[in-house]
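In these records, each integer encodes one residue's backbone shape. Here is one protein:

___
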Amino acid sequence: MRKKYFQNATNYIHHPLERPHMTAAKNDLREYVKRVMKLKGLTQKDVQRQSGWKITDGYVASITTGRAKNLSVDKLMALADGLGVDYDEQFHIACGAEDLDETGKSRNGPDSLMILETVQQVVMSPTVTQILNEVVRLSPEDRVGLLAYIKKVRATKRGSRRKPRSD
């Protein structure tokens, strides 16, 4: 079933010039591959080996640097095998397609890699673990308020990084 799904989408991948969002999708795939490799501690050689040698380490490198052009369905499938990720998830990222559920509605939840990265940070930092322990004890209303506060603090910090204007 998955292979048929990919084969039917071949034209979608092979003609990036016909789709203006493909440059962004290529960057998304590049970042996705780099994140998966970092999270799983994979090298380009590991991806090559886990793909059953269907994709070379050099090709993986060209994907992570954004040099790869016109990724074929076979290469995307080999890449997914090499990374040990879901074909559909990677395909959607490679196409720049919106993540849809079974009913065709957009999923706006966090992606699995973001959750893994967050858990990794929790494990590595006692402070983050303490913060999360406190957050889970809050009421849902207080969590919403805390989230708004955190976003406000981050926005303020980003704004303070700007260079002062010289008049």
